[in-house]
Specification:
alpha/beta, elongated, 6-stranded parallel sheet
Length: about 240
């Protein structure tokens, strides 16, 4: 019998992607309210996050706190854009349209989860994200595949800190050596591998050069994880 009992996945960039149609909707709505093109940058997002956090660390500890945080976030964003009319209502409209509803699945996601589910694997998600991790996966129809949802905001540590991987293992009652893991961040896949996981780096867009010494730990899509698991099955 194969030694693996569990499989863990990152969320964003691995199971799900941000929905470009939702992002385009956001940009259109804000531009129509402000009267000028909406420009979004990472630095601006982080600045607004800090403001919405109101000086607290962490910014939120549970789902209700997270919801209140993002409602403040969208109000601050609209004010920065010069939107004053119906600012609160419009911020709520953005929240309702985007919070946990701005992701889509990769083409092979369900196929791969079905493979591991039907073979009795314990399945979990390990993600550097907020308390709404489980709910966000409910929104895209994936939550029922998993029995653990390990979010950095609840653990108090993000990948590749060993604490978040250990929390995920404890939740499933397995060891790292019994577990597969896949992540689109190489550093985070490496962090799991150091602890004993069989961990793969998912390179959907930009595969590493052919000579990379870790190329055997690279996947082009999630089907590669199925191929590896099948090679490990007894004859």
């Amino acid at each position: 019998m194969t030694k693996y009992r569990a499989v863990f996945f990152d969320r964003d960039g691995t199971l799900t992607a941000y929905d470009p149609e939702k992002e385009a909707w956001r940009d259109r709505m804000i531009s129509s309210w402000s009267g000028h093109p909406f420009v979004w940058t990472y630095d601006r997002m982080m600045s607004l996050f800090r403001q919405a956090g109101e000086g607290r660390t962490p910014w939120y500890r549970d789902v209700p706190e997270e919801q209140a945080f993002f409602r403040r976030f969208y109000r601050l964003l609209l004010r920065e854009e010069g939107v004053t009319e119906d600012c609160g209502r419009r911020a709520d409209e953005l929240f309702d349209g985007l919070w946990c509803r701005d992701r889509i699945l990769y083409p092979e996601t369900v196929e791969v989860l079905e493979y591991f589910s039907t073979r009795g694997f314990r399945m979990g998600v390990i993600s550097d994200t907020s308390p709404s991790l489980e709910y966000s996966l409910q929104c895209v129809g994936l939550a029922s595949y998993f029995t653990s949802f390990t979010a950095s905001s609840l653990v108090g540590a993000g990948k590749p800190d060993p604490r978040i991987y250990h929390a995920a293992l404890k939740a499933q009652g397995v060891t790292a050596e019994e577990s597969l893991y896949v992540d689109d961040c190489e550093e985070e896949a490496d962090g799991a591998r150091v602890l004993g996981f069989t961990a793969f780096h998912l390179c959907r867009q930009d595969p590493e050069p052919h000579g990379n010494e870790k190329k055997h730990w690279q996947l082009r899509d999630l089907r590669g994880l199925v191929e590896y698991a099948e090679r490990c099955e007894p004859v």
